[in-house]
Request: fold
Amino acid sequence: MNDRIDFEQVREVVRLAEELGVAELEVETAALKVRVKMAGAGQAQAGAAQTGVLSPASRGITPASVPAAEAAGTDHLDAVVAPMVGTFYRAPSPDAPPFVKEGDFVEENQVVCVIEAMKLFNEIQAEKRGRIARVLTENATPVEFGQPLFLVDTSATRG
Amino acid sequence: MFRKVLVANRGEIAVRVIRACHELGVRTVAVYSEADRSSLHVKMADEAFCIGPAPTTGSYLNIPNIMSTAELLGVDAIHPGYGFLAENPRFAEIVADCKITFIGPPPKAIEVMGDKAAAREQMQRAGVPVIPGSHGPVASEREARDAARLTGYPLIMKAAAGGGGRGMRVVHTPQDLPAAVQTAQQEAQAAFGDGRVYVEKYIAEPRHVEVQILADRHGTVLNLGERDCSIQRRHQKLIEEAPPPRLRERTLVAMGRAAVRAAQAIGYVNAGTVEFLVDMHENFYFMEMNTRIQVEHPVTEMVTGVDLVKEQIRVAAGERLAFGQRDIEWRGHALECRINAEDPRHNFRPSPGTITTFTPPGGTGIRVDTHCYPGYAIPPHYDSLVAKVIAWGRDRHEAIGRMRRALLEFDIGGIQTTIPFHLKVLDNGFFRRGEIYTDFVQRRIELDTL
Reply:
């Protein structure tokens, strides 16, 4: 069985917080810990964190729903997602520096990582300009289709 | 035996394959599209990997993403299920090139049977009766007229690359032939990217009877018996049963032998099905061979006691079949009803949506294969099969009675299903007497009184 975060559960918590009209709500189960902070006027900011229940089967793969949930609630954060199944590499070769690191400013269409699939290295580009707010995936790990790799703060300006 | 098998499919067949693997102590990898995140096969497998967006070309037909997943997760075999990539010889080849075992026949066998004209030629050489018709695709009106002399009228024109009832056209008189050739070629080109068509004798009131084959890599080819799949609508099978009612023992034996010859002729390995058309006089003609497990395989499992999917996996792992032809016994009678998310009261229109209540039937002699559960949302992107209900009885009468009881018990809320249609067929006098043919639904079932 896999232990992905259930998006529905996260949505439920947000809905509950809205209904109760509270400023902050934290719900914790064995598999999931969700804290919702209400920003005001019906707008919710959800920050989800999964506690350590990854099955051995998933071998350290970041559950896709964690950063997606995080990104969903924040206006300026944009996720760069894996367009294919493959192995995620942050640098063009093992000795080379990473394409980007947290805090770097990236331009639209700038290469941010490569995904190796079927013995081919596919360059992955940022879709929007902004600052790399977070690197979500470990170097040299398998990634699923649609898995978020980076969060880009699109409200940031260069300099 | 394999350590880890990737199931390159979804729905009930993915669940079926995962169950077989787990019984054999083999770990499983489910692949899924973004629309199938909450599907049962994803929950049941030991590992699951998202391979693409909802449309099948990006996910379940996406060979690079499936092969990447196989390599990343270190699987040693891939089971293709039915549909999607199951009968794609290129896929079988790529899998082999990656040093992974394809749980199915050799690519060459898939390729031969995938080309109707090539298949027919091979079958004729192997002494398997084929429907009188053109020796190969007809290129012109003149060639079609030559073929018509062999077949007589009415005749049927079929796309060489077609299947599942698509790309077919009946021609009733010589006057209609010239226009029909042109239209059929254009249609075939548009639908399959291959304009070749061939001409066959049209058989009135035929039955669809098929033979289940199981072959290992050591030269053993077994006949696991016949299934009648005559109850169809628009060439889609709805009810299947084993053994076929009202066919002489002699016919069944001859058909079984012909099917074994067909499999041997193309060096077939693994489970496969040889489909025949049977006319009123019990002449049978080779139609095609499906080089994969079929939707209706459970009816054969119910009467033989053989787990076909487990045998597929064992055979692919190189094992010898542990039983011979003489060990196979057919006990009783089994029927399968395909429950689709379609509204039979409105011309079988698709009825996707969220299943609110779901209580499958049970009890003696009932088996339900499904990937659905209460709260499951049927994605609109895939086929409408919700569940297969299989009923076994000591004889056909008991099996029909049990099926009827099971379908009345089956509670599926939130969507429309084909259950009312099935009940109507089960209560039909002609069906009860075993008078069935491929246009049974059209002729005997009044859909507006459902």
The interface with chain A takes residues 34, 37, 42-53, 59, 64-69, 72-73 of chain B (CB under 8 Å). The first helix of chain B runs from residue 11 to 23. The first strand of chain B starts at residue 4 and ends at 7. DSSP finds 15 helices and 22 strands in chain B.
